[in-house]
Amino acid sequence: MGKRVIMYEELKRLLRESEHTVAFTGAGISTLSGIRDFRGKNGVYLEPWHGKPVEEILSLDCFLAEPQLFYGWAKEFIYRLDDFHPAAVHRVLARLEEAGRLDSVYTQNIDLLHRKAGSRRVFELHGSPAQHHCLRCSRMFSYREIAPLVLDDRIPRCECGGLIKPDIVFYGENLDEALLDRAFAELGRARLLLVLGSSLTVQPAASLPLATCRGGGKIVIVNAQPTPLDRYAALRYDDLQAVFDALAAEAWE
């Protein structure tokens, strides 16, 4: 039995023995679905859009001042989600949840792929484009209502004239404090945390795995690039596809 197979067997053992398992996911898992990540070697942050850094376009101040910049950029990166489908990681996590092996998924992603794969206990730390709201009257709108407008190069506005904003967390906005508190509490109770496809550089979410360490749980990190928390990992892999192909072959019922 090869060393890699033995390492996968250890991961399977941890999953079977853990009484409370949580997954924490980042953009790296969605690259397997064809969605570019943000900070990788081909990340979208490396390419300015209309002369502006993408991080600036994703700031609340820029959105309020020049919403056409955000919606023009987001046309390709947020409003074509129907073009993308769950990859092995999303599908296996949904299977693990159904089999009672995974309690929750906390994700930094806004691509809705966990839900599309069938996961039910998904907590989106950076918000979700599934819902939008009017900044003037607070009326709610669905992704299905807004996406056709954006794809038609229109800036979404409410009947009252207010600008419509997706319910994602822009730079300059705080994460939902209640959700963050919930995440720290649950990860603190977790006996096993799977950190998947995250560079663990965006705070405060990137500090969440430390709650598991402080609570005496184990963390497993699977990410193509090194992370600041690698030294805390009980197991460390760099190939998401290989790891989850191995897990997909297992019967988890």
TrEMBL record:
Keyword Manganese in record: no
Domain Deacetylase sirtuin-type residues, every copy: 1-253
Keyword field: Metal-binding, NAD, Transferase, Zinc
Top enzyme class: transferase
Signal peptide: none
Annotated catalytic residues: H126
Organism superkingdom: Bacteria
Coiled coil stretches, renumbered: none
Residue sites binding Zn(2+) per the record: C134, C137, C158, C160
Keyword match NAD: yes
SUPFAM superfamilies listed in its UniProt record: DHS-like NAD/FAD-binding domain
Example of a GO MF term: NAD+ binding
Name this protein carries in UniProt: protein acetyllysine N-acetyltransferase
